[in-house]
Write a structure and sequence with these properties.
The chain is mainly α and about 525 residues long. The protein is built from 17 helices and no strands. The protein starts with a helix and ends with a helix.
Length: about 525
């Protein structure tokens, strides 16, 4: 009855929208309503997972609690959804689309609760289980549609489409000709890459600063990415060797792919900024962007000794500096004593390294010069992270604070494993991959999926919530099952590196990637 009443309320709002009279409530802003709606879409998914687990176990008590949580979340969806829609002043289509998404979520949730009742009435019925799974999938799709209506999500989606369109041009194989020298083209690429790297740092900060900041920084990031890809295409057009040209195009494509991943993560963080691992995810994707830029520039760099190392060190230090913008979350797992020791040791080595650099440059021993520059860049990055972690630890060590309680799951370890599995799957499917690379990717997948299974099992043992425990156990089983299927496909690929076997691995990797996502 609650959900049906909410659906009628939505219909009333739609009538007001069509009359052009929908206005924000006193003290309500689209910014706060968007944040509330984004958080609710996340918690709604958790409530639904508990509902499904409880229904599968035929546990009526837990099912009733989870059903009430779903209904309460839908109340918030209605209130926040109305607030977001009211913020789209003069955009009737956007208002109607958002309210339609709210109503669709309510309709599908009602269908899910009906399917849950049927499953509880006959827990051994295969039809009941199928109906429950079908209803749950429809709810997930409705959630995705509603999430896509958020202002910040719409802006980031537009930026992702801009980059995707440029990626299609890159794949076309049609590269512009230029009258500029190769060195001039490299200089242009280096400048545009620096601008893109700077824009990625701005995007990381603005992802936690509100939809207005995110909209501006996402657009700028996409524009700088397109400019850099145009510069890379110009170099590809000026490259005579087909193998080198292919390597440039592949490196540019990887940079565009990591850029889209950073935008996707920023979209998720903007909707759920209080998530404990949000900063870690953003920094990981930002580092991936920097690394992909370094690979591209390394591929296109001139033969001047030391140039590549200097540019790579500068970009890495700039990317590492982004952690100093927000010191409210941990950077790594070091304790304060470790931070002090790291700063002391790295600072000493950095001083020695920078003292040697001028001498190497004067003597023109450029190989050692490049190595020292790389070492210096890594030392500075380590110093920045240790200093940021120290500042974080000082900030939380107030005498009035109480000891924290560790969570059931270490989300940073989950993020690291998830990223490693994704990277390994991408390496596995690379067309030019060798048997050795395939086996290396398989080893990485096995290592990190095993780590995820261990995390799930440990979490299951550490929680007193029976529904949560079953959820962790099932997650471990899903990871193990999908990993086994992928390993079978990898064995075939390792034996014969054919396109057909790569396609089998591609299909087998999708369930695993979906499970760990």
């Amino acid at each position: 009855h609650t959900i049906q009443a909410l659906m009628k309320d939505v219909d009333e709002v739609v009538k007001v929208v069509k009359a052009g009279k929908l206005m924000p409530l006193p003290g309500e802003t689209q910014e706060t309503a968007s944040l509330e709606l984004g958080i609710t879409t996340k918690t709604f998914g958790s409530s639904m997972a508990q509902l499904l687990t409880a229904a599968a176990q035929a546990n009526e008590n837990y099912t009733g609690v989870a059903a009430r949580d779903v209904a309460n979340a839908l109340r918030v969806v209605y209130t926040a959804g109305r607030g977001v829609a009211a913020g789209f002043q003069g955009q009737t289509s956007a208002q109607e689309t958002l309210m339609a998404a709210c109503k669709s979520l309510m309709e599908q949730s009602l269908n899910l609760l009906t399917a849950t009742k049927m499953a509880l009435a006959n827990p051994k019925s295969p039809e009941g289980k199928v109906g429950l799974a079908t209803a749950a999938k429809s709810v997930q799709q409705a959630l995705g549609s509603l999430f896509g209506c958020l202002p910040s999500v719409r802006d980031v989606d537009s930026a992702m489409k801009i980059i995707a369109a440029q990626m299609e041009k890159l794949k076309s194989g049609k590269f512009p000709s230029s009258s500029a020298s190769y060195q001039q083209l490299q200089l242009t690429l280096s400048e545009t890459a620096a601008a893109m790297n700077s824009a990625s740092s701005t995007l990381v900060v603005s992802s936690r600063g509100g939809s207005a900041m995110l909209a501006t920084s996402a657009k700028k990031f996409a524009d700088t990415c397109v400019t850099m890809l145009n510069a890379a295409m110009a170099i590809a057009g000026a490259t005579k060797d087909k193998t080198d040209r292919k390597a440039v195009v592949q490196a540019a494509g990887n940079t565009a792919a990591t850029a889209n991943k950073l935008l996707l993560t920023s979209k998720q963080v903007a909707a759920h900024p209080e998530a404990s691992n949000s900063k870690v995810q953003l920094q990981t994707e930002a580092r991936n962007v920097t690394e992909s830029i370094n690979v591209l520039l390394g591929q296109c760099s001139s033969t001047t000794p030391g140039q590549k190392e200097c540019e790579s060190a500068l970009r890495s230090m700039q990317a590492a500096g982004a952690v100093l913008e927000s010191l409210s979350q941990h950077v790594n797992d070091m304790v304060f004593a470790d931070c002090q020791e790291t700063v002391r040791d790295k600072a000493t080595v950095l001083g020695e390294t920078m003292g040697v650099v001028p001498l190497l440059l004067k003597k023109r021993t450029m190989d050692k010069f490049g190595d020292k520059i790389t070492d210096a860049g890594e030392l500075v990055c380590a110093l920045i992270e240790a200093a940021a972690q120290s500042a974080y630890l000082v900030g939380i060590s107030d005498a009035s604070s109480s000891a924290g309680t560790a969570g059931v799951v270490d989300t940073s370890k989950v993020t690291v494993a998830q990223q490693a599995i994704t990277n390994a799957c991408e390496a596995l499917l690379a067309p030019e991959g060798t048997q050795r690379q395939v086996l290396g990717a398989a080893t990485s997948i096995a290592k990190h999926t095993a780590a995820l299974c261990t995390i799930c099992k440990t979490a299951a043992q550490g929680t007193r919530n029976e529904v949560a425990r079953q959820h962790f156990v099932q997650s471990a089983r899903d990871v193990a099952k999908t990993t086994g299927e992928l390993v079978t496909a990898i064995k075939g690929l390792a034996g014969s590196l054919t396109d057909a076997n790569r396609q089998k691995c591609s299909e087998a990797s999708k369930p695993l990637l979906k499970t760990v996502d």
